[in-house]
Amino acid sequence: MKHFLDIHKTDPADLRRIIDTASDVKKARAGRPKGALDDDLPLKDHMVALIFEKPSTRTRVSFDVGVRQMGGQTMVLSGSDMQLGHGETIADTARVLSRYVDLIMMRTFEEDTLLEMAEYATVPVINGLTNRTHPCQIMADILTFEEHNGPIKGKKVVWTGDGNNVFASFAHAAKQFDFDLVFSGPPPLDPEASLDGLYSIERNPQAAVEGADLVVTDTWVSMHDPQSARERRHNQLRGYQVNKQLMDHAKSNALFMHCLPAHRDDEATSEVMDGPNSVIFDEAENRLHAQKAVMRWCLES
Ligand code: CP
Ligand code: NVA
């Protein structure tokens, strides 16, 4: 049984195979109605639980649609509506769910919740974002980069802003897919120490973005951050906004990515988000294709 818990916990050859499968399954159904079934149905007769402790638009809809396109059925569960949110242990929840469903996708606050679910579940568990990482997002981002600009190996990727959960999965990917990652943000918002050695730091955003193949940012205040941090974050991060002046330091064919949801004109201007280098909606679409490949991989024997 294979869980998809994090990029650094997945073998690079498997990661590459997942990206290639995602590309193939995307091409195979090009032009088909979104509700049409795929040619092969690896999730036929399969039931999938999608559990959310936090809000979601992309993760929720893309997993749901992806399962159905592959012939499976879904149930979307809110953590607070489950007994899990009212004192039942994660281990017991995992054992019970494993009697009903064939696959569990989970978005949690604490990483330990996800890890405990995976420890006690007897079906594969997929990480749909925790406070620490967001691996499915970065699989979609790698697919998106390679569709537009070829192999990501050896490329320069620059992250501006908060060293958060999405950055952490980029850092894991930098090692597994062998690209250079630069972090550009203020010291109080540096990535967690466990990621040291996976990226370099350049505090000056213009210098960081020089020669970049990809510029990435994310919201300045994540779902797990206290809302009271908002004003302080804005003051700390204003200088790291991705705007046209900053993008002009990158290569002319550099891509701009943001996992969304965005606070337009905070972390990135609408001019960049809607501009010629932006691939933000391709990223969102590719969540569907990448996660279908992740689910296939999890269910392979
Ligand atoms: N990017 C992403 O995970 O979006 P949602 O929070 O809408 O799922
Ligand atoms: N860093 C953001 C990503 C949302 C998809 C958050 O955790 O809220």
UniProtKB/TrEMBL annotation:
Query: One GO biological process from the UniProt record?
Result: citrulline biosynthetic process
Which GO CC terms are listed, alphabetically? cytoplasm
Work out whether the entry's keyword set contains Membrane.
no
Q: Where does carbamoyl phosphate bind?
A: S56, T57, R58, T59, Q83, R107, H134, P135, C136, Q137, C259, L260, R287
Which pathway does it operate in? Amino-acid biosynthesis; L-arginine biosynthesis; L-arginine from L-ornithine and carbamoyl phosphate: step 1/3
**Keywords of the record:** Cytoplasm, Transferase
- What is the protein's given name? Ornithine carbamoyltransferase
Q: Describe its function.
A: Reversibly catalyzes the transfer of the carbamoyl group from carbamoyl phosphate (CP) to the N(epsilon) atom of ornithine (ORN) to produce L-citrulline.
Q: Where does L-ornithine bind?
A: N165, D218, S222, M223
What reaction does this catalyse?
A: carbamoyl phosphate + L-ornithine = L-citrulline + phosphate + H(+)
Pfam families linked: OTCace, OTCace_N
Q: The Aspartate/ornithine carbamoyltransferase Asp/Orn-binding domain covers which part of the protein?
A: 153-297
Sequence ranges assigned to domain Aspartate/ornithine carbamoyltransferase carbamoyl-P binding in this UniProt record: 2-147
Q: What is its EC number?
A: 2.1.3.3
The Swiss-Prot or TrEMBL record describes its family as follows: Belongs to the aspartate/ornithine carbamoyltransferase superfamily. OTCase family.
Recall the GO molecular function terms of this protein's record.
amino acid binding; ornithine carbamoyltransferase activity
> What subcellular compartments does it reside in?
Cytoplasm
Which superkingdom heads the taxonomic lineage of this protein's source?
Answer: Bacteria
Q: What class of enzyme is it?
A: transferase
